Amino acid sequence: MHVEPRVRHVGYLEILDDLLLAWQLPVFTHRAQRATVSPAKFYLFDAGVFRSLRPRGPLDRPEEMDDAALEGLVAQHLRAWAAYSRESFELAYWRTHSGVEVDFIV
Questions:
Q1: Residue 31's domain spans which residues?
Q2: What's the domain count of the chain?
Q3: pLDDT number for residue 51
Q4: From CA 52, how far away is CA 96, in angstroms rounded?
Q5: Tens place of pLDDT for every residue, the chain, 106 residues?
Q6: What is residue 94's predicted lDDT score, i.e. its pLDDT?
Q7: Which of 3, 44, 47, 98 could pair with 72 as two cysteines, CB 3.0-4.6 Å apart?
Q8: Which residues does 78 contact at the CB level (< 8 Å), separation at least 6?
Q9: Nearest in space to 75 (alpha carbons), one of 38, 47, 55
Q10: What CA–CA distance (Å, rounded) separates 44 from 10?
């Protein structure tokens, strides 16, 4: 009996994650009282790379780019702190369908 090997389809985000160029922040689901948004947040490995790769349009305000870059920088620091801490910490975020968001939950 011949069995076909399973082919795993890998997306672009998984390839970036495997190459350590990006990572994903999962949604906080433990004891959530409200319906939450399900996709993970995506961060590049460096906030400066994000700023240089993000396309800029004529309607973009500089504050919007600075806010996203600062959030990525804080995410990098929290991720490093959680990795080097003696205790086991996990990072997540929480956002409802109405748009209320908590950027980081440790």
A1: 12-105
A2: 1
A3: 72
A4: 30
A5: 544 555 555 677 787 777 777 888 888 877 656 566 678 887 878 777 777 777 777 777 777 777 777 888 888 889 889 888 888 888 888 887 777 777 888 8
A6: 81
A7: 47
A8: 91, 104, 106
A9: 47
A10: 18
Let me know: does 13 contact 22? Beta carbons within 8 Å: yes
- Asked if 50 contacts 68 with a C-beta cutoff of 8 angstroms, the reply is yes
For the chain, how are helix, strand and coil distributed in percent, rounded to 5?
Answer: 35, 20, 45
State the pLDDT at residue 8: 58
- Tokens linked to 1: 């009996």
Q: Using alpha carbons, list the distances in angstroms from residue 62 to 41, 57, 67, 68, 69.
A: 21, 11, 9, 10, 11
The answer to whether 25 and 41 have CB atoms below 8 angstroms apart is: yes
